[in-house]
Amino acid sequence: MKKIRLKYVDWWDGFQPEQYRFHQILTKHFDIEISDEPDYIIASVYSDEAKSYNCVRILYTGENICPDFNIYDYAIGFEYLEFGDRYIRIPNFIMNPAYDIDIQKALSKHLLSADDIKREKKFCSFVVSNGNAAPIREKMFEELNKYKRVDSGGRYLNNIGRPEGVRDKFAFQSEHKFSLTFENSAHLGYTTEKLLQGFSAGTIPIYWGDPAVENCFNPKAFINISGNNVYDAIELVKEVDTQDDLYFSMLREPAFLNNDYQTKLLEKLDNFLVHIFNQPLECAYRRNSFEHISNKSVLNEFVKEDRGRFSQWISNKARCFYGKRKNK
């Protein structure tokens, strides 16, 4: 196995890399050494340490943040974009194995039993701990409450007498017909675990967020209010709530457009990471340390001061380029 000196930087306190897909994939293919003198780093967005490492930089973001490819050589994120071998789109519920159980439950949620149909449920759930989000989320909660009570089980807007929040989100959501599954913000491609967990609990999710969410999830299985106003959405919720045939027809719809969605993305992620680390180290760099200097006089001065580093950079570029041509 090829030995890789790797470090994780800019993660939250308590981060454990072995719990994430990238580390699991890398340890399957390579001999990983966690090092303070790394040849590669895998960074997140919770600090700014990555820029201090002059090595191959790989960004993973589970937040609504677009990668800066002037800083990072490669990135994994939410954006729909094509950038050669430098980027892959993987939603956070695919990256984190903790959501595997939600995916499995969502994949079978439409296989209703007779008991599922007979079971009495409350109206709608809402589980949020962070109040810092787009105003439409709170407005929807307040306006829908005027129709029927929405049970808020999170720490934010809690109305069930448990200010610390429910311990079991899945169990709480599954007691309800609907679940409010709003993203904190709306951006193309930014689909988190919220909609998935609404499906896994056997509810009809009421979703707002990613305008392209229907690229992945079945639009017949949830109420997508992205692009609609709150009041139109509430009228649609009322219609589904009062018409049992419509309600159960939505429950019987599969959550995903393709049941192999997770499998295909994990195959792509495996190929993406193996490609990065299988290259000779000097060929794995993609960010350009010099081309961002547009002023020629500044560049000339820079080259004089660090001629050795500049020559090595040119040499590496040439070696990788001609090596690729030779192998074709």
From TrEMBL:
One MF term from GO for this chain? Answer: fucosyltransferase activity
One Pfam family in the UniProt entry: Glyco_transf_10
What the entry lists under SUPFAM superfamilies is as follows: UDP-Glycosyltransferase/glycogen phosphorylase
Give start-end ranges for the coiled-coil region(s): none
Which domain of life does the protein's organism represent?
Bacteria
Please give the GO cellular component terms listed in this UniProt entry.
Answer: membrane
Where in the numbering of this chain does the Fucosyltransferase C-terminal domain appear? Answer: 118-249
Using the record's annotation, list all stretches that form the Alpha-(1,3)-fucosyltransferase FucT N-terminal domain. Answer: 6-95
The alphabetical list of record keywords is: Glycosyltransferase, Transferase
**Annotated TM spans:** none
* Keyword field contains Glycosyltransferase: yes
Q: Which family does it belong to?
A: Belongs to the glycosyltransferase 10 family.
Protein's UniProt name: Uncharacterized protein
Q: Which species?
A: Enterocloster bolteae 90A9
